[in-house]
Structures are given as structure tokens and as C-alpha cells.
């Protein structure tokens, strides 16, 4: 048997902190650059903040005005929750946004017979909103109790680097169906053009588009050739001049997302105004036109969201049990997301009590969601974590500035609605990159484990496969049968199981942690990466933890770290 290589012979030794970042969690760019980066994070957060209400509000009987009001409320509470999390929670540079994990129980509430029997659409919308609010308020207790009691800190001690790899990776990979939605992109040649040029370059793209979409028949002849030249220059600008610097700032790399969205959004608006989508299918117009969201016309100039603005919440035991499962799923997904964010911010993995503290504050966030009526619960925004890596800026200040933008533009309705009118496929194109980046961060934790061990290969492979396969089965089953595989007379039980197994990170955590802690776990401590991991389990285990996770205003006097 060959001898193990010496440390100096390893070309890429394991590293606690990710290298190559311009700014880490506690270092800040200039104020001008920080404000621009914060605005970029705000624009990215708009995707989920608009998508969820756009899907749910019409099902509830709401109109465009109701949708705008929900979007404003969701953004307002997102800003508050993000500030709370970055100041008093984990203190990681994470945006706290709306969660898709709550969709299953919310849809179940929407289709409750007692609510569906209401004939007046507006009254049904208000009644459904109040029911969702009540369920969110009760379900927030799950995270509040597990977080502040430090029970989640105790549970997290069973997580090893090997066990967390599938969880973190599937936080990104598990969202694959939102990165390239077939219906949204099938006929939206504007976004296809962007994706094609970003990935393949102009020459291949031009040949493919000439067969797939005869643009010369769709665009006015006066600017069709200029459009081709424009996209060629744009591809060169973004892909090959990303190291271009202005005053020692890599503008094209640092603000590629903002520049790309601005240009493509303007291009989509030009196509809309010129009538290019006029005779296209309805689904194409809905996803590609910039005037189909009806946000700007329906938004008030100034509107400040406030608690109980929809009326007093209503409480139903069945609704609450289903929502509790979503809160638990959100907890697991956020756990993986926090670990990914710590790596992309060049910080140490959050100690157990810091992670639990963050979960507690996230529970407070879900409570605020219920009080204000955001239509969904809270979780860590995965796309914004990916943007930390894309810009190579993991500064906490940047995220706090983005929270300020969320609050400001949610109050100034018309201006916020202008930015929120960006077509969904543009966000989907961005997600293809950012979700994949987060997933790769999860895979990077394999460097601390022994992947020459058959035990580790078995656990990793099975957890990954089941984490993708089981939720896909539940999704396919639901599409065909119009209900989940769990379909008993107890609706709360159905919502509980269907919500749990719809989540890839949750399934991966159940499988990976169970196998990792039952299969030769004592003999395999080194293979699992525990010698490296153990120093980050307590606050005082590594001297760098104090630099990254100490509370502001000297609050550690009242909440001493464990």
C-alpha cells in the first residue's frame, strides 16, 4: 500500500476560509461601491419577492392591487428581517427572503372548502390571508423554541463535514427547476439570446438562433442588425473584459449582474414597445413582456405596511400543523445556507450556539411575516448567497445596505414596482449561475473528508440521489394526481409529510445524518472530517469566531457565548 503524501506534497491543501475574496465579512468596500453592491442585492431579491405573490394571490381571489400590496409588505419585512439577522442573528451577510417551502401548506389553506365557498373574491382573499397569517404566527414557535433554547445547537453537533455536504449542495441543486423553467423560456427568445451568448459565445449562438427564431421577421428592420452587433459587443464586454478596472475597481466583474439585468430588461422593454410579442402565445407574453405584471399601474405612490393590516389573524389547528412542517424545512434549508454563506464570506463555520441564535431570530422573522401578512414565511435567500461569490464581496455592510433599499422602495410603491417589473425569465437566467455556485460551495466541504473511504462514498452518493429523487417523485405525483402522495382524510398530516419530502435539503439531511451517525461513526471520525470540524463547534474553539460573530453594542455581556 502506498504511503500517504506529506502535507507539502498536496497541491491544494484543505483551507478553513475561502481564498480570493476582495472583502470578507468584516471588511468593507468604499461607501459608493457598497451602496451599488447593496442595490444589486436588492434587485436580485426582487425575483422571489414578486414570484411568490404573483402565483399565490390570484389563487386566493386577489387582484393586481392586492398583489402589489403583498409584494410591498414582503419586501418591507424582508428588509427588517435581514437587518435583524445581520445585527443580532448569525451576523453573516445573508438576505432573509420569502421561502418556497411554505407553498404546500399555503396552497392547502387556499383550497380549504370553508374558504373556497366564499363567492366574493376580495372577501375570500382577505379571509385566506388571515388564515395564512394565523398559521405562520403559530409555526414561528418551532424556530423560536429550537433556536433560543439552544436545542438546535445540540442537534447540530451531530453534523459532520460529510453529513453537511449533501445538505448545502442541495440547497443549490434542489432549486434546479427554478433556474430554467421550460414554460417561461420556451418562446422567450430575448432570454434565450442572453443565455446562449453568456454560455456559448456569439458565433454558435447566431447560428442556432438563425434556425430557432427568425428574428428578422420579428424585429423592425431599422435596428435588427444593430441588435446583433449590440449583443456581440455585450458578450465581449461581460465575458472577456471582466478584469477591466476603473479606479482599481473591477467594474464588469463586480457589477456584472446589475449591468446584465439593466441591459436585458431595457432590451425586453424595447421588444415590448415595438410589438415583437404582439402575436406571440399568451404564456410568452406573460413571461417576456415588461408590462404584464401590472405592478406599476396598481402600486400607490407611498404606502407603509403595518402589522395586522389585513385584519385579525384566524387560527385553525390543521392549518398550523402543516405550516409547522414548512417552518422545520425552512430551518434545515437555512442551516445549509448559513454554512455556505460563511464560506463565501471568508468566515469560519458558525459555531453551534451562533447557528441556533440565528434560527431563533429567523423564527422572529416568520412571526413578523404572520403579523404583517407577507403570504409566506422566511428563509435565507440562496441566490443572494451565490451573489457573494460572484462579486467576491462578502461584506456584512453591503447586505445591510440592501435591506435599507428593500424598506425604502417598499414604502415608495411606484419606484419599487418599476424595478419589480423585471420579467421572471431574467431572474431564472441568473439563478442558473448563482444556485450552481452555492451548490459547489457545499461540494467544497468534501476536502475535509476522506473520499477514498467506501463508507463516505456510500453515504454521499445515497444522500445526493435520494435528496434529488424523492422530491422529484413527490412533484411528479402532485402534477399528475393534483395532490401529494400523502393523501389521507387528515389534511394536516398530508401537508406535514408532503412539505417535508418536497424539500431536497431536508431529505438529504435525514439520510446523510442518519447514516453518518450510525455507520461505523466512532471508527470513522477522521474520515468524516471531525478533527477539523470540532474546533468550530464551540465559540471559543477558534479565536477567529470572536471577530466574526460577536454581537454589537457589547451585547455579549447579557448573552454570553457558549
Explain what you see.
It is a single chain. The chain is an all-alpha fold. The chain is built from 27 helices and two strands. It has a two-stranded antiparallel sheet. Helix 1 crosses helix 2 (64-88), helix 7 (161-173) runs antiparallel to helix 22 (424-444) and helix 19 packs across helix 22. The model is unreliable at 182-186 and 194-239 (pLDDT under 50).
Q: What's the Cα radius of gyration?
A: 24 Å
SSE run: HHEHHHHHHHHHHHHHHHHEHHHHHHHHH
Taking the sheet with the most strands, its summary is:
2 strands, antiparallel
Give the helix level as a range of percent.
55-70%
Shape: globular
The total count of strands amounts to: 2
Q: List segments where confidence is low: pLDDT < 50 over at least 5 consecutive residues.
A: 182-186, 194-239
Q: Which band does the percent of strand residues land in?
A: under 5%
What spatial order of strands do you see in the largest sheet?
1-2
State the end-to-end distance.
44 Å
Helix count equals 27
Average pLDDT: 82
- What structural category do the secondary elements indicate? mainly alpha
Protein name: Nucleobase-ascorbate transporter 2
Main location: membrane
GO molecular function, one term: transmembrane transporter activity
Keywords: Membrane, Transmembrane, Transmembrane helix
